[in-house]
Amino acid sequence: MTSVSIIGTGKMGSAIAEIAARAGADIQIIRRRAGAGSSLERSDAVYGMVGDDLTGELVVLAVPYEAYPSVLEQYRDRLAGKTVIDIANPIDFTTYDELQVPADSSTAVELSQALPAGVAVVKAFNVNLGDTLSTGTNGTTTTTVLFAGDDAEAKIAVAALIEASGLRAIDAGQLSRARELEAMGFLQIVLAATGKTRYESGFTLLQ
Ligand SMILES: NC(=O)c1ccc[n+]([C@@H]2O[C@H](COP(=O)([O-])OP(=O)(O)OC[C@H]3O[C@@H](n4cnc5c(N)ncnc54)[C@H](OP(=O)(O)O)[C@@H]3O)[C@@H](O)[C@H]2O)c1
């Protein structure tokens, strides 16, 4: 199996570490201070501090979009050959009314443009609330993970990780589709925050 570096130890970092563990991946967890954040420290992961070299072939940015500049400052030039997984939903939480990226773009495209050529970016997991990743279900069906990207090999690796963990992986297309995935993630969080759905549920695709 693959190896995964996860930057961030919050809700999503913990959920994706659980997925990686179920998939049998080597796991590195990068945090910015001692203590494992909102989760108990895992015995199956190697911990490092921000600034340490990343050992994973897949690198998950499990931090708020606002933290991307500081993460890029550390790692922009140390990501050659890796696949960066962007999971961000850049919601303006002061209004819950808009995203913090231009309407014709996405965090994934902005990230891709900020990285050196040749670093693959895949949008994934942003249309999944953390609980549905940890449990593997939205309460009714197996959790479906939508992803998008331009690099075919990178997408195969991300899909393999998702499927090896027991979840469904659906390729939504090119990285330009990240804009729609971010709109879906935005809507899902608004629905959960306003009590129209539960944080343990989520969108699915019936086939
Ligand atoms: N929560 C969800 O269900 C959900 C669903 C889909 C997508 N997302 C996306 O997932 C990402 C993470 O969300 P979350 O809910 O996991 O947030 P969270 O629980 O607040 O965790 C954020 C993590 O990022 C770390 N962090 C913040 N700034 C950092 C920096 N400059 N350098 C290094 N680490 C930094 C925090 O470290 P400290 O512990 O030191 O503060 C914390 O470990 C966001 O982009 C969000 O939009 C979330």
Structure described in brief:
The chain contains 6 helices and 8 strands.
The third-level CATH topology is Rossmann fold
Q: Strands across the major sheet, in which order?
A: 3-2-1-4-5-6-7-8
Low-pLDDT ranges: none
Shape verdict: globular
Question: What is the makeup of the main sheet?
Answer: 8 strands, mixed
Which CATH class is shown? Alpha Beta
Question: Which strand-content bin applies to the residues?
Answer: 15-25%
Question: Which descriptors apply to this entry?
Answer:
207 residues, binds NADP nicotinamide-adenine-dinucleotide phosphate
Detail the topology: elements first, then pairings.
Elements lengths: L2 E5 L3 H12 L3 E6 L13 E5 L8 E4 L6 H8 L7 E4 L20 H8 L5 E5 L5 H6 L8 E6 L2 H13 L3 E4 L6 H16 L14
Parallel strand pairs: 1-2, 1-4, 2-3, 4-5, 5-6, 7-8
Antiparallel strand pairs: 6-7
NADP nicotinamide-adenine-dinucleotide phosphate binds next to helix 1 and helix 2.
Report on this model:
The chain has one domain (3-193): 3-Layer(aba) Sandwich (Rossmann fold), CATH 3.40.50.720. It is 30% helix and 19% strand. The protein has 6 helices and 8 strands. Strands 3-2-1-4-5-6-7-8 form an 8-stranded mixed sheet, with helices on both faces. The protein is globular and about 40 Å long. 43% of the residues are buried. The chain binds NADP nicotinamide-adenine-dinucleotide phosphate. NADP nicotinamide-adenine-dinucleotide phosphate (NAP) binds next to helix 1 and helix 2.
